[in-house]
Design a protein that fits this description.
The protein is of the alpha/beta class. It has 13 helices and 16 strands. Bound molecules: pyridoxal-5'-phosphate (PLP). Pyridoxal-5'-phosphate binds next to helix 5.
């Protein structure tokens, strides 16, 4: 075999075995859709086994904000791996974790003073929910054991997280026997720049008033509802939620796993409304997409309540808690972000996306387009055929992964104007001929 045919057969071997053995996110093993094999990635480019190169519009699901193969992040990982990759966090501490927690407290909204590290976003949400429940048990109000969430919300795939995801998208009917029952308010309808109307919060307001004795916390994604619909909503809604939580003695959990670290144009989306939650979840971009890591922050009031209660401690402790390798890369990623003019950069991406998306409004199959910060959304009139459209995007040299009616991008922050234009041109070519 010459080298090209041997490479091709190696490639099909991987793809065959992939279909035989490997489960991908939300995928069927009975009717698998072929995956694309990445062999190298650098900057905004994914290099495939067949030699083609794709501009990544997804930042690997919000994570790879500095792009791939970044020298500073590589160096941080290598330096830490030569010291120690992991040690248990029970009774042991280390600089990478302590530095990270200090930075997170300093950059997040005021009052979030304590940090619990975990391995993934869903676990950070589980931890947040457990904090809220344990807080109320500890302060002698165990009946406050329900949550209030929003339609179109997404908070992860584990069971507590799933129980507060959109009931329809999250297929609550199928898991009816096993999911905890919580309350849901309608999704906010008023957009970021639209005139506020108190009606938008009326039903939320009625539910929290009626159920306050049962409610431990409200949980929501501030300003941007991500995987539950890619919807942007008014900061006034969030401000009113904060007021209503205070009025009715209910904790507020802000899930900033997708929005955190600058994506919306603010470092954290809560800043759009100038509010601080009682508990905040972070994940995704925290390590610049290098390692799996998440954090749940809470107020000193919440931590005191928990620790002075019956258990005398918070009842949680993942094996890989505070993984030094992940923390070291997170520190390097945050240093890169905070030492850059990330705000101007996100404004640049936002301006280009806004201009580029204008012409999509002329496409018959497009229902609506919207932009906030480094997020561009094209909502189609009907759901796209994922397998088919993915092939067309790849043929255009771009990586975009729609869900349902939503074709959207949130590229690495380092994307250049010319790359962003090529990305949007590729999407335009596919959607305008659909
Ligand atoms: C992705 C996401 C999660 C879940 O994070 P995982 O790391 O996938 O477990 C939770 N909440 C929001 C808002 C997310 O975008």
């Amino acid at each position: 075999m010459n080298s090209i045919t041997s490479e091709l057969s190696a490639q099909s071997r991987i793809l065959d075995k992939d279909q035989q053995f490997v489960w991908h996110p939300y995928s069927s093993l009975s009717a698998p859709i072929p995956a694309y094999e990445v062999v190298f990635a650098e900057g905004v480019n994914l290099h495939l086994a067949d030699g083609s190169q794709l501009i990544d519009g997804m930042a690997s699901w919000w994570c790879a904000i500095h792009g791939y193969n970044h020298p500073a992040l590589n160096a941080a990982a290598k330096a830490q791996i030569d010291k120690f990759s992991h040690v248990m966090f029970g009774g042991i501490t280390h600089a990478p974790a302590v530095d990270l927690c200090e930075t997170l407290v300093n950059i997040t909204p005021r009052g979030l003073d304590k940090v619990f590290l975990s391995d993934s976003g869903s676990v950070a949400v589980e931890v947040a929910i457990k904090m809220a429940f344990q807080y109320w048990i500890s302060v002698g109000k165990p009946d406050k054991n329900k949550l209030l969430s929003l339609h179109n919300g997404y908070h992860g795939d584990t069971f507590a997280a799933m129980s507060v995801c959109d009931p329809v998208n999250g297929m609550h009917h199928m898991f009816d026997q096993v999911l905890a029952k919580h309350y849901f308010a309608p999704a906010p309808q008023i957009g970021v720049d639209e005139l506020w109307d108190e009606d938008d919060i009326a039903e939320f307001s009625a539910i929290i008033a009626a159920k306050k004795d049962q409610l431990a916390a409200v949980i929501l994604e501030p300003i941007v509802q991500g995987a539950g619909g890619m919807r942007f909503y008014s900061p006034e809604y969030l401000r009113r939620v904060r007021e209503l939580c205070d009025e009715h003695d209910v904790l507020l959990i802000a899930d900033e796993i997708a929005t955190g670290f600058g994506r919306t144009g603010k470092l954290f989306a809560c800043e759009w409304a100038g509010v601080a939650p009682d508990i905040m979840c972070l994940g995704k971009a925290i390590t610049g997409g290098y390692m799996t890591l998440a954090a749940t922050l809470c107020s000193a009031e919440v931590s005191r309540g928990i620790c002075e209660g019956e258990a005398g401690c918070f009842m949680h402790g993942p094996t890989f808690m505070g993984n030094p390798l992940a923390c070291a890369v997170a520190n390097a990623s945050l240093e890169l972000l905070l030492s850059s003019d990330w705000e101007a950069n996100i404004r640049r991406i936002e301006a280009t996306l806004s201009t580029e998306l204008l012409r999509f409004d002329g496409i018959e199959a497009v229902a609506q387009t919207r932009v906030l910060g480094g997020i561009g959304v094209i909502e189609m009139k009907v759901a796209v055929n994922l397998a088919e459209i993915q092939k067309q995007f790849v043929a255009e040299g771009i990586w975009v992964r729609p869900f349902g009616k939503l074709v959207y991008v949130m590229p690495p922050y380092i994307i250049k104007e010319e790359e962003l234009s090529r990305l949007m041109q590729g999407i335009f070519n596919v959607l305008s001929t659909a």
